[in-house]
Design goal:
single chain; 198 residues; mainly alpha
């Protein structure tokens, strides 16, 4: 029962759509109505409102970190904490409040990783920042960071339960970016900061 309660609570927390909250607070259009249609920080940035995008980014990352930190503080086992990490991430990808059509999970995954292992989280974040600044493609940076995360985890801690959790997060992130991969290959992907169309 303890595990079930923790997983449901984490999933519901992950389901909170900060892109929608930010858009309401800042008087913006529904982020699902422009750009990529994704309820996430990068798409909110396409509205031209950097404060709303930052609010979304912080909120999405915080919910991932909070879920893991609370699970750790409650003394849950490593397995339970790992399941909580996956549950909060799943909540963001498939939120009950948005008919299970959520964001791509980059910020939430970053929050989860920083809480699970700060050094690992920083290494993955550094990868994202390097690729993002070099290419100006948020999606490419996310894909590269996701691919690197399990490798960093193995290098830092060897094979173990954490690698499984990180690997599942990485696979889900890359899967959610499948359409972005197609657009990147076709040279049609929008760069960071590009304004919304229409």
């Amino acid at each position: 029962m303890e595990t079930l309660f923790a997983l449901v609570a984490a999933y519901l927390l992950g389901s909170v759509p900060f892109a929608m909250v930010a858009s309401k607070l800042f008087g913006l259009a529904d982020p699902r109505s422009y750009g990529s249609g994704n309820p996430g920080a990068t798409n909110v940035l396409r509205s031209g409102n950097k404060k709303a995008a930052l609010f979304t980014l912080i909120g999405d990352a915080a919910k991932g970190a909070v879920a893991v930190i609370v699970a750790q503080k409650l003394g849950l086992s490593d397995l339970q904490v790992g399941l909580v990490a996956l549950a909060v991430f799943a909540g963001h990808l498939f939120p009950v409040f948005l008919k299970f059509k959520g964001g791509k999970g980059v910020a939430t995954a970053a929050g989860v990783l920083l809480a699970l292992d700060p050094l690992l989280g920083l290494a993955v974040l550094a990868t994202w920042l390097f690729v993002a600044f070099a290419s100006r493609y948020s999606s490419l940076a996310a894909i590269a960071a996701a691919a690197a995360a399990p490798l960093f985890s193995v290098l830092m801690h060897g094979a173990g339960g954490q690698v499984v959790v990180v690997g599942l997060l990485a696979l889900a992130l890359i899967g959610k970016h499948w359409q972005n991969i197609q657009r990147l290959l076709a040279g049609q992907e929008s760069k960071i900061g590009a304004k919304k169309k229409g």
